[in-house]
Amino acid sequence: MAQAQSLHDIPDGMTPDAAVAMIGTGVPRWGSSRWPRVAALGADVALGYRESGWIERVAEGPRPTLVLDGVGGDVGRAALELLDVGGRLVMFGWSARTPTAFTSSDVVAGGLTVSWVAGPRRLRTHGGLRGLESRALAEAAAGRLIPLVHLPFALSDAAGAHRALESRATTGKVVLVP
Question: What is the reported pLDDT for 157?
Answer without folding.
Answer: 92
